[in-house]
Amino acid sequence: MEEIELSIMNIIINAGEAKTHAYEALRKVNEGEYDAADEEMKKSNDALEVAHNFQTSFIQKEASGEKVDIGVLFVHAQDHLMTAISEKNLIEQIIELRKVVNTLLKK
Q1: Which residues are recorded as modified (Phosphohistidine) (predicted)?
Q2: Within 10 Å of residue 60's Cβ, how many Cβ atoms?
């Protein structure tokens, strides 16, 4: 597998890891496990950072004049990354709402 394909696969893999950890954080907060949820969100953010760094390397190459051959696999990776970012952002909001609901249910 070529370097460009490995980089693309790293975007896909890390975006998937980010989504997995974000959904696990939501599951944890639903159970009232706030510290564990925070740890899962940290893992989600870390995975997104790795994926974003691979994406940025493509942008930097293109910006420096190097031709980057964009194929369907790269588009697929971009879809995964943008979906992971969007879902993580929504899950963060749901987590905050769930904390409020959990607090109200305890009263």
Answers
A1: 76
A2: 11
Of residues 65, 73, 23, 62, the one with CA closest to residue 44? 23
**Nearest to 14, CA basis, from 95, 78, 90, 94:** 78
Q: Pick from 95, 74, 92, 83: which is nearest to 19 by CA?
A: 83
What is the torsional sign of CA 96, 94, 47, 72? negative
Annotated catalytic residues are 76
Domains of the chain: 3-106 (1.20.58.80)
34-56 pLDDT, tens digit per residue, is 999 999 999 999 999 999 999 99
